[in-house]
Structures are given as C-alpha cells and as structure tokens.
Amino acid sequence: MTDLSVVIPVYNEEESLPLLWAELREVLDRLGLAFEVVFVDDGSRDRSAEIVRSFREADPRVRLVRLKANAGETAATDAGFKAARGRRVVVMDADLQNDPRDIPTLLSHLDHWDAATGWRVQRENGDNFVRRASSRIANRIRNWVSDEAIQDSGCTFRAFRRECLRGLVLYRGFHRFIPTLLQMRGYRVVEVPVSHRPRRFGRTKYSVLNRAFVAFVDLLVVRWMTARLLRYEVVEDVGGDFVRD
Question: What is the pLDDT of residue 149?
C-alpha cells in the first residue's frame, strides 16, 4: 500500500499549481515514503486540469481526479478521500497559503493521535484584519455552540490515519467540521501550529459574509448531530454467533 496520499482540491488555480508541485515534490521526496498526490479538479474553468496532466506525464505519482462540474470544496475533498490509497492522508489547499514544509510535522503527530489539524497561529502573515477578526469571532461562536475548544476551525490543512476516513459521511460545507465529526466517532484529534502564507494569485473563493452565515447554519446541524448521537457500550453478548441482516 502507498504510505502517503496528499489530497489537494483545486478550483481555478492554474498560476499556483506549478509552484505548489515544485515545493511539494521536494518535501515529499525527502520523507523517503511511497507517496501519491491526488489533485481533485472541482470543475475549474481555467487550465488547472491540463497543468496537472503535465505533472502526471513527468511523474506517475501524480493523479488527477476531475469532477464533472463545480461541486464545492467539501465534495472535492470527499472525492479525494475516496480516491486516496495511502496509509496516511494529508489534505491541503492549492492556493499556496499552506506550506508543504509543515507536512512532516503533521504526520509526526499521527504516531500518537488519529488526526492532526492545522492551527494558523500567525494569521497576520496571510490574512487582512477583517478576515482575522471574523475568524476569531466565528471560532468563539463555534466553540460556544459545540462545547469544544478548537483554536482554528477554518484551517483545512490536516493529516489523518486512513482508518479515520472509513465511513466518514460529509455534506456540503462539512469539510470545516471534519475534526468534530471524527471526535464524535471516538477518534483522537490534535491541533498543530502551521504556517499561513499570503495568497499570491487570484482571490479567495469565499466572502466573509457568505462564509459566516453558511458556516453558522452548518454548525447548528452539527450541534444537533452531536446531541442526538447514540452513546452506548455493549458489556455482554451471550450466544452472539448469529448476526441478523
């Protein structure tokens, strides 16, 4: 089995992709692992898919998964998880704000944890004041509603043991809540400080207002799921050889 799969949702990132692949390949080669990089093209309207194909022609460790139409980041992430073949899985953005050099640190925590999620400690390096302030407010509301203590729920730079992703069901927008969904299923999740770099090309796919409203609605759904979660432990099963379908 492949040691590591890196899943990268892509939507109109033709300028970022060559720089990202050069950085990523250098970091992954140094790890000495059998790896694959799964670029998931989420219905891009630029040359993103063509660029990934050129990577594949030069290096068979690159894979391209193309969605028929733009379906959103959660769908692209889910498609990448389903395609991944590695014992460990990393998911990161394609816009160069995530630094591939943080991947070894995230992976090192999987020796003792089931998942490691990034925490952008120095966000002033990559975001303006409005985005930083809105993120702090969103995190406080999220933790108040969900009764958690996540420092950076918006960071989607994460590493997982493969078994965490088996049976994981995502809905639109739920890529933000993957750590919560894993904790609901009993997996151990740790937050790890990661770098956060300025966006070099294009602009963000989300505005502050649409992100805040949609995320709050999704949060209420997650809160309901947490409250309604079945919690029990079987202590005895006498004569349990027969399993009813």
Answer: 63
